[in-house]
Amino acid sequence: MMIATPYLLYLGHSNDEIGIKTSRGLAVFRPDICVGEFRHDDCRLTLGLPRMGFADAYHAGARTLVLGIANAGGRLGAELVEDALDAMAAGLDIASGLHQRLKDEPRLVEAAARLGRSLHDVRDPRPDIPVGTGRRRAGKRLLTVGTDCSVGKMYTTLCLARALADRGIAADFRATGQTGILIAGSGVPLDAVVADFISGAIEQISPDRHDGGWDLIEGQGSLFHPSFAGVSTGLLHGAQPDAIILCHDPLRSHMRGLPHYAPPGLAECLEANLRVARLTNPDVRAVGIALNTAALPAAEASALCDRTAAALGLPCTDPYRLSVADIVDTLVEAFD
Q: I need a labelling partner for 297 at 20 to 30 A (CA). Which of 201, 210, 255, 281 fits?
C-alpha cells in the first residue's frame, strides 16, 4: 500500500477526543508528513496543526486526505462522502480506516476514476494470511495489552520503540490497527481479519528474528471487553510474547461503549493476559504498567504511577507524558 504523503488530517464534525485518535496519532508521531487539519466550524477539537481547506492543503503540498476519525459502526456518512468528493476535486487522494470501505461507495469510486485519484482502504487485510501454528519463533517480542480499548497501547508501543532505538537497541513497531499502519507504513488491520486467521496474521508480521532486536507488537482490545476479547486472545497467541506491558486509563469508569461493565482490576487483568499468553510462550513475563494520565495534574499523575508500581511490583509510568526509562531498564535486564 503506497499512500502519497504529506497528509491532510480530517476531523470533520467530530467532538469526541477518542474518536479522532487516528488523526491525533499521526499528528503526534508523524508530524513530518502532516500538512494541516480539516474541520468544520462546529468541531471544537484541534490537533494544533494549521486549519486548511482542501484546495489550500493541496497547494501547501498535501496529497492525501486521511479520514482519521472513528464513529459508531465505522460508517461513511453522507457528509463524510461529500467532504471526500470535494477533497478529490481539489486534487487529494483519500485514505480511510473506517469499517465501511471507500471502494464500496459508488460515488467515491466513480469520482476517483474520473479524476485520477486513489482510494486507500487501510482496513483491507492481505489475502494470503495463514492459520496460526503456535510454532516457536526465533527472536524477542513484546506485546502491549490493556484493561480496555483505547487506553494507550499504540502510544506505549511507539514510545518504547523510540526509547530502545535511542539506546542503540534494534526495535521495530508492528502495527495491528489503522492508525499504527498509517504511522508505520505497514502492518495488519487485525479487527478486519477472519477469526480463524488472527494468530496467523501476527505470526506473519512478526516472523523469525535473528539480530537480537525486538518486535514491539501493538495490542488491540482487552480480554475483559465482551465485544473484543476474541481479537485480544488471538493476538496474545500469535504474538508469542516474551514480555507484556499492561496499559490502563485510571479515569475509565466503565468499559468503552459498555456502561454496564466495570473495568477489571490491574492485577486481575495482568494475570489473565499472562495466563492466555502462556499457551504459546510459557516463559512470558510482565515488565511494566503504562497509565494514560493525560487528564490528571502532573503531580497527581506521578504519585499514581508510584503507587501503582509499589502495588504491583513493576515499573509504572505514562509513556508519552513521562518516561519509559524504568520499563526499558527492566526489559533489558530481564532479557540480556
A: 255
Return the C-alpha cell found at 281.
Answer: 510462550
Q: What angle do CA 11, 109, 30 make, to 5 degrees?
A: 35
Torsion region of 212: left, alpha or beta (phi above 0 gives left; psi -120 to 50 gives alpha)? left
Identify the CA nearest to 86 among candidates 61, 52, 60. 52
The pLDDT, as a whole number, for residue 72 is 63
Fold of 140-335: Rossmann fold (3.40.50)
CATH 3.40.50.300 holds for 7-121: no
Whole-angstrom Cα distance, residue 182 to residue 224? 27
pLDDT in tens, 147-173: 999 999 999 999 999 999 999 999 999
Compute the residue count for the chain: 336
Could you tell me where in the chain the CATH 3.40.50.300 domains are found? 140-335
Other CB atoms within 10 Å distance of the CB of residue 60: 13
Q: What nine digits make up the cell of 218?
A: 501493538
